[in-house]
Amino acid sequence: MKRAHLAATLALFAVVSGCQTTRARRTIVETIGGAPRVRSFASSTAYEAFLRAEIAVNRGSFEEAARQIELATFADDTDGWLCARRAELLLLAGDRTEALSSAEACARRFGEQAACWVVLGEALVAAGRASEATAAFTRALAVAPDDPEVRESVAIGQGASRSSAAVARENAPETRPGDRTRAQRALLDAGRDRRPTLAALRRERARQARERGAHREVDALLAPLYMSQRATREDRVAIIEARVADGRARDAAPMVASLAMSAQTAAVSQIELARLWLLVDQPERAVEASERAATEGRTDALAKRLHGTALVRSGRATEGLAMLAAIDPSEGEFVEAQIEAAHALAQRARGDLAEGVFTRAIARLGAEPSRAIDRDRLRIARATALSRSGANTESASVAGAVETAWGRQQRGMLAAASGAGSPDVLRDLRERSGDRREDSRADAWLVLVCQRGGAASGSGRACGDAEIDRALVDAERGAAEDPVTLRARASRTRDAAEAVALRRRARILDPLGRE
Questions:
Q1: So what's the pLDDT on residue 14?
Q2: Is 168 exposed, middle or buried (0-12, 13-18, 19+ CB in 10 A)?
Q3: Under the phi-then-psi rule, with left for phi > 0, alpha for psi from -120 to 50, and beta for the rest, what region is 73?
Q4: C-alpha distances in Å from residue 269, one per residue of 143, 193, 243, 260, 263
Q5: Which residue, 88, 106, 345, 431, has fewest beta-carbon neighbours within 10 Å?
Q6: What is the DSSP string of 162-174?
Q7: How high is the pLDDT of residue 18?
Q8: What are phi and psi of 43, to 5 degrees?
Q9: What are phi and psi of 39, to 5 degrees?
Q10: Cα 386 from Cα 408, distance rounded (Å)
Q11: Cα–Cα distance between 359 and 184 in angstroms, integer?
């Protein structure tokens, strides 16, 4: 149960500052069984660790919160609520096994506290043990049948809608004015109030930021909704994708674990969960999710692609490749599946297998003109893999066979990344593919190639200042946070400090990128 919020944390800071010069025991006013009481901590260590944990929660750092609350429970092992909070934070951090173990121990030792049974129910839901979870929630209601927070937490844990959970809180015998206000707000949200709200404005601004590749801005706009428990499934997925694109997959993983807890209530499908686990580089969990999807009857091309990719990335290449080979070339997932598998093999130093995947996939597509873009996608992916392995000559040969404007544009970016700066490269970078983001990235590469001074033709410079300035503006519009755009901006700014900051940011996002 979420009893600690930012306001409470700030109030606790006030208590800390007032107690620094005394030996008084640290205290907090909390609600237990519907009634407020003052609870003292066994030691200053427990109190300060509890504060640090709640601050970490409000920052979205669930792993740090779990570490701090563990210190608090070690310093004060007589408090059942601290025990329950530790299990809850372990769940948020994605450690389902340890969370369940902690929740079970908590319920055994502090069976008189509803919080322990609620978090045990949540941990059992996350483990897929629905019937046992129902028993734990029932026990929580038996311990504190009139507590509004217990009622709401149990309703949410059992898969009730937001409006039903709000009604459960509002109708509890021990409900307080604050509970009624929170319940009424939830009911308004559930009713999809059509008036413009701050949440709606945040989502619209986040959508615009996502379109131009401003991943940190997406995170900053939507994270407050997540922390206030008003984020939709789509909001959470958008935050996860933004953090991964920003190079912070580790910060995104706890949010995937949080979504996994709600998967039992159909808030998110197992297929979507498998995709997200792959995004945060946890293929073993992606295998588990895709296998659960298969037991639910998902055998379409997307399910095969995610399951096969997860198997390859988790080290089970033979099984994974066999599953990916079963996807028909006419299905929309075919090309993406082959690219993901080949890249996973290349990352595991299996370049021979990756080369075979690309060769067979291109052959299976045939020579129909309608599949030209798909063949080019495979060629560019293959050339990229060769370039990363240092085989630049072979990479250029593979990319030379492209058939479409998109392929030529990608070929230009690949050549620019390898350090080339010939007029042919500039010609490729000036191609327009119709994909706004890719066109913007090509513009950023054009700026870098021109700035290197290697793009000269017989009649002088192949790109003038006007073209460079226009290209930089277009790059910032469509791919503002892309590492290439950041490097392009750094190459044009006259502010040395800004240039250093931009290059540092680009290195964080793309450590292997070329300046």
A1: 36
A2: buried
A3: alpha
A4: 33, 26, 21, 9, 6
A5: 431
A6: HHHHHHHHHTSTT
A7: 39
A8: -155, 165
A9: -115, 130
A10: 17
A11: 60
Return d(Cα 145, Cα 139) in angstroms, integer: 9
- The pTM (predicted TM-score) of the whole model is 0.55
At residue 206's C-alpha, the angle toward residues 203 and 212, to 5°, is 150
* Residues forming beta bridges with residue 36, ordered by sequence position: 31
User: Which residue is it, tokens 């609620």?
Assistant: 118
Tell me the C-alpha distance between 298 and 386, whole Å.
34
Question: What is the residue whose two structure tokens read 């009911």?
Answer: 187
**What DSSP line would sit under 1-45, residue for residue?**
-----HHHHHHHHHHHHHHTTS-PPPEEEEEETTEEEEEE-S-HH
Name the residue among 311, 293, 370 with its Cα closest to residue 335: 370
Which uninterrupted H or E stretch holds 320?
A: helix 317-325
DSSP assignment of 443-496, as one string? HHHHHHHHHHT--EETTEESS-HHHHHHHHHHHHHH-TTSHHHHHHHHHH-S-H
Residues of the chain with pLDDT under 70: 1-43, 59-60, 157-197, 228-229, 262-267, 389-399, 420-421, 453-462, 511-515
